[in-house]
Amino acid sequence: MKALLWASLVTSTFGATHNDEQYSPPFYPSPWAKGEGGWADAHQKALDFVSQLTLAEKVNLTTGNGWMQHHCVGETGSVPRLGFDGICFQDGPLGIRFAHYVSSFPAGINVAATWDRKLAYTRGQAMGKEFSDKGADVQLGPVSGPIGRSPEGGRNWEGFSPDPVLTGVFTAETVRGMQDAGVITSLKHFIGNEQEHFRIVREANGYGFNISESASTQIDDKTMHELYLWPFADAVRAGVGSIMCSYQQINNSYGCANSYTMNSLLKNELDFQGFVVTDWGAHGTGVASAFAGLDVSMPGDTDLGSGFSYWGGNLTIAVLNGTVPEWRLDDMAVRLMSAYYKVGRDKLRVPVNFNSWTKHTYGAEHAMVGPQHGYDIVNQHVDVHRGQSALIRKIGAESTVLLKNNGVLPLSGTEKLTAIIGEDAGPNAWGANGCEDRSCDNGTLATGWGSGTADYPYLITPADAIQRTILDKGDGLVDLVTHNWAYDKIQQLASQASVALVFVNADAGEGFLAVDGNIGDRNNLTLWKNGEEVIRQTASVCNNTVVVMHTVGPVLINSWYDHENIKAILWAGLPGQESGNAIADILYGQVNPGAKSPFTWGKDRESYGAPLLYKQNNGNEAPQIDFTEGVFIDYRAFDKTNTTPIYEFGHGLSYTTFSYSDLQIQKLDAAPYKPTTGYTSPASSPSNSSKTWSEYLFPESIRKVPLYIYPYLNSTDPKEASADRHYGLPTDQYIPAGATNSSAQPLHPAGGAPGGNAGLWEEVYKVTATITNTGTRPGDEVVQVYLSLGGPDDPQIVLRGFDKIALETGQTKTFSAVLTRRDISNWDPVTQDWVVSEYPKTVFVGSSSRKLHLNAALP
Ligand SMILES: *[C@@H]1O[C@H](CO)[C@@H](O)[C@H](O)[C@H]1NC(C)=O
Ligand SMILES: *[C@@H]1O[C@H](CO)[C@@H](O)[C@H](O)[C@H]1NC(C)=O
Ligand SMILES: *[C@@H]1O[C@H](CO)[C@@H](O)[C@H](O)[C@H]1NC(C)=O
Ligand SMILES: *[C@@H]1O[C@H](CO)[C@@H](O)[C@H](O)[C@H]1NC(C)=O
Ligand SMILES: *[C@@H]1O[C@H](CO)[C@@H](O)[C@H](O)[C@H]1NC(C)=O
Ligand SMILES: *[C@@H]1O[C@H](CO)[C@@H](O)[C@H](O)[C@H]1NC(C)=O
Ligand SMILES: *[C@@H]1O[C@H](CO)[C@@H](O)[C@H](O)[C@H]1NC(C)=O
Ligand SMILES: *[C@@H]1O[C@H](CO)[C@@H](O)[C@H](O)[C@H]1NC(C)=O
Ligand SMILES: *[C@@H]1O[C@H](CO)[C@@H](O)[C@H](O)[C@H]1NC(C)=O
Ligand SMILES: *[C@@H]1O[C@H](CO)[C@@H](O)[C@H](O)[C@H]1NC(C)=O
Ligand SMILES: *[C@@H]1O[C@H](CO)[C@@H](O)[C@H](O)[C@H]1NC(C)=O
């Protein structure tokens, strides 16, 4: 329990010492960056840069200047002596938050629904370019945690899919796209951050929960590797520059102070060479977090706007007093600068030209403390959203899943009378950006709410686009009822209509904002705003009803999906600014749907398992969220309990049809797996700074901004400078065993290269099959490869590969996918490595997780 004890001594806000609760094993020292796997060049440049820095300059790179002190949501200190501006961090995963003249891209969940690697990459690149041109260095996205354990999870839509392979592929493609455009990707949230409730003590207190510590998620080692860590491994392998540690605890140790998750899993086993940054305000301890593997504190202050920091001056002191070895500080700075050079930021950098806190041209330089401390041009209104509408529209259409179609779609556009029904078809009367961080469900839903949103440059509603399409195609009538409780008006219109298009939605978002009593996480899985009744009212009088859903994830559709008058159902997710155009493209056949559902549509909530925790379950202490379902979430849970969903994971129809034949599995020549052995090099410091305390006093010349976080000291008396009431405890009480050990350390058997042991990525089987378009239109089919790993504890099947294949009418193509060694392995907690079990394994190829047309044993 020592690891927990020191944490509680170091800071009063930390350290749940619950002997009966699950605990996270200590892992020290924090692995130092080595410049491996494509990082050599960037690492060398970073070493060269950091070797020139003083102690205060290095500390500056590790710590934000404080909440709302600069233009970005977070900015590190700068190195004026070398003309180096602080690093600008900006939200979020689907576009630039707190800025205008930017794009609002489709959400991550829509990217997953496309099952299209190239679109994911292109979206990442397009977003990265916008960030780069606005002067942001780090894009806070994408998201692979939450992965989507519970369907109500408020931020699931920011990520991709509850399947780790799908999420891993799209995380990696997004990372590559963004970083190729020259911004550092900060993948979040590491790890186990699967719900909004109880993530932050203060936030929970604000909602009336009396808890003293954030929730703790308990994840066993096998589940960690086979599910939650999986996509992070893909991202590390893709060269991700940064990873954000999470607010909540893992095994009762905070995400940003957990040596097991950061040091062992991320930096040792996955050999991550970039930097770990805190979620905003998730920093809760000084020295302990440095040892546990944290590299950058954001936005720098203890509590947002406090003016104090666990790092900043405290980190300068911790190095000066000999507690934190200089090599650990240097490693933080080297990791940050490696990421900077890796993405080529040094060649693309422009000064930040937007301001997160005002859209006015002039404003306070330090919004936190007001214009009396500097007033200037803070916004250049640079337009970076140029030319992205076609891409956004394409992703919107290609992510729209055709769940049901009794032959009515596509529409011709020449229908005599088209009825458009539902608030979700029309605009937000308050304006598309009328609610703070999109925290309302007014009008059509094209994104969730919270920090993972961007201002719409415009928002095409379904009503706009459908009316325009109809007017372009012929001379049909079209009318619109967007009042969801105006039943008589709905019926009047729908009963006359040749076709009624009903638009409904369900929203969710981040926990700091509540909408209709939903604290980020959804309170239920039903439609919002009376959606079911709008559908029933329409379908009761119109025998040609089509339902379109804009939802953040699965909703319960059992009460209406099989109504005889409901002829087609579409899920359009959260398509972003081109929402209306995208759905019109599908409804009128401009685009033949090829999307597949990235999650399961169950008949009831219970069949998903993995309940979200809405109530305190540990007195006033950290709520305990036990991931007892293991790897059995979404389709794996349905398969395990033999529960038939309404629409299964991977399901999605097309306006054409496909046939599958001729499955072949070829064993490839692969070298036998070699667990990694050997040692790292010892830790080294590129610089050896002066340890003279007086050199780090506030410079005489400085114009001190109130509440600003500096690397300087205001006294050569350490205790006074630190202002920490625990200052000077004997170090053996809080320095974990081994934390300062700078000698060569053993490599992890499953490690040795970014993303893990290279042998895990070796291709061991090739799967091919023949796919034919048997229908009457060209179309795309997503061919899916599932594997039964065969063991008694394994899911019935797991997704292991896929490809989206475009086929002309009558055309036949060969689908092929490769399985890597990781794909056919299980995590073995005993050897701490991946192993291929002796159980017989079967490969399935199909058009969904339950339409497995072909199968064969793995030879
Ligand atoms: C959490 O505890 C479980 C069970 O003791 C263990 O398997 C797992 O590795 C631990 N994970 C972390 C992050 O501490
Ligand atoms: C640290 O960063 C701040 C803010 O950018 C800057 O004013 C200060 O000069 C920097 N200190 C050093 C030692 O470079
Ligand atoms: C929260 O719980 C603690 C411990 O039981 C108690 O002392 C405190 O008064 C409670 N606070 C509120 C606001 O109810
Ligand atoms: C140093 O950290 C302690 C908590 O560990 C905090 O209370 C104090 O305010 C910090 N000091 C400064 C100067 O930020
Ligand atoms: C060294 O400085 C850090 C940061 O202020 C402080 O937490 C720690 O108690 C100090 N240690 C000693 C031995 O003075
Ligand atoms: C917009 O949403 C807010 C928050 O839910 C709600 O209070 C308000 O009535 C809505 N406004 C309109 C015009 O729909
Ligand atoms: C589910 O939540 C939504 C949004 O708050 C609400 O409109 C709806 O009425 C709720 N459904 C049920 C069955 O309570
Ligand atoms: C739908 O209703 C119309 C008008 O009542 C009728 O002409 C038509 O045949 C019906 N279509 C179907 C498919 O039932
Ligand atoms: C750093 O410099 C000091 C003073 O010159 C010296 O005593 C110390 O050994 C040096 N440390 C390293 C790691 O080079
Ligand atoms: C010295 O720093 C501490 C922590 O920042 C602060 O509480 C104190 O007011 C400062 N004193 C002066 C003279 O600036
Ligand atoms: C430092 O780590 C190495 C490698 O794990 C180990 O052999 C050595 O005993 C450690 N040194 C100390 C002083 O603990």
TrEMBL record:
| InterPro entries (alphabetical) | Cellulose_deg_GH3, Fn3-like, GH, Glyco_hydro_3_AS, Glyco_hydro_3_C, Glyco_hydro_3_C_sf, Glyco_hydro_3_N, Glyco_hydro_3_N_sf
Please name the top-level EC class of this enzyme.
Answer: hydrolase
GO molecular function annotation: beta-glucosidase activity
Q: What is its EC number?
A: 3.2.1.21
- Which residues constitute the signal peptide according to the record? 1-15
Give the pathway listed in the UniProt entry for this protein.
Answer: Glycan metabolism; cellulose degradation
Quote any Pfam family the record assigns: Glyco_hydro_3
SUPFAM superfamilies listed in its UniProt record: (Trans)glycosidases, Beta-D-glucan exohydrolase, C-terminal domain
The record's keywords, sorted A to Z, are: Carbohydrate metabolism, Cellulose degradation, Glycoprotein, Glycosidase, Hydrolase, Polysaccharide degradation, Signal
Catalyses which reaction?
A: Hydrolysis of terminal, non-reducing beta-D-glucosyl residues with release of beta-D-glucose
Tell me the GO BP annotations in alphabetical order.
cellulose catabolic process
Domain (Fibronectin type III-like) ranges: 781-849
UniProt similarity note: Belongs to the glycosyl hydrolase 3 family.
Write down what this protein is called.
Answer: beta-glucosidase
Species whose genome carries this gene: Aspergillus avenaceus
Recite the lineage of the species. Answer: Eukaryota, Fungi, Dikarya, Ascomycota, Pezizomycotina
